[in-house]
Amino acid sequence: MGSSDVSLISVHPFFRRFVFSIIQNIRSANLNYEKRDVIHADLVPKVSERVMMASMAERPLLIDKREEVVDVAPKRDGFESMRMSELIAPIEKPIARRMPIVPRAHIETVNPPIRLSPVVESGAVTIDTDGYGKIAPLLGDPSVSSIDCKGAEKSITVIRAGQRQTTRVALSEKEIGDILGKVADEAHIPLLEGVFRASISEFSVNAVISKTIGSRFLIRKVTAYNLLE
After folding, report:
1. pTM for the model
2. 155 has which bridge partners?
3. pLDDT, tens digit, for every residue of 132-154?
4. Is 162 within 8 Å of 152 (Cβ atoms)?
5. Which of 93, 136, 190, 191 could disulfide-link 184, Cβ–Cβ 3.0 to 4.6 Å?
6. Which band of pLDDT confidence, cut at 50, 70 and 90, is reported for residue 16?
7. Which H or E run contains 166?
8. How many CA atoms lie less than 13 Å away from 223 in the CB half-sphere?
9. What residue segments make up the domains of the chain, in order of their start?
10. Which CATH architecture has domain 133-228?
11. How many whole angstroms from its chain centre is CA 47?
């Protein structure tokens, strides 16, 4: 070892701590200096050199010499090696019992006879149309609120459900006289030439009777449509 190596070792921090610890041990030991016991100086660098070499040496790699463990499947008894399907009996499907089919008895129902009755609207008045000739169907129609005859052989105009309509019905002079005579009898009013007005429970009549210009009349029925007009 050269002088340069020794100087490098003396500069190392580990060497300084080591020397410092030796000095402290010497001071704590209270050595008797009269005997002139001197520590050999060659021991210090040698010890420090060995420590340095040991600390700077590379550690050898640890080789795992354990044998590789091989997985060994455990042995099973014959009972354990059996499948679950072999231990359990197969499940049989239940047998569905077929019930005998009982035919249903055919029951004949007899519907009672239907009685037809004339339909009368609520609030409408039933009119006796006997003796009124051709205008009888118009008097019996609850949707007709007024019947206007403007003269002999002229089409009669009616108001049905609030709308004015012209019918194909036409009266002769004799038929107009018969209708007004029927109204006069029921109202107990004499039938004279001129203006004729009569009112009964089912309708009212305004007429003009004249042999010269001809007779005409207007019948207004007591209906819900007539009240709204």
Report:
1. 0.44
2. 170
3. 889 989 988 889 999 999 999 99
4. no
5. 191
6. confident
7. strand 163-170
8. 24
9. 3-56, 133-228
10. 2-Layer Sandwich (3.30)
11. 95
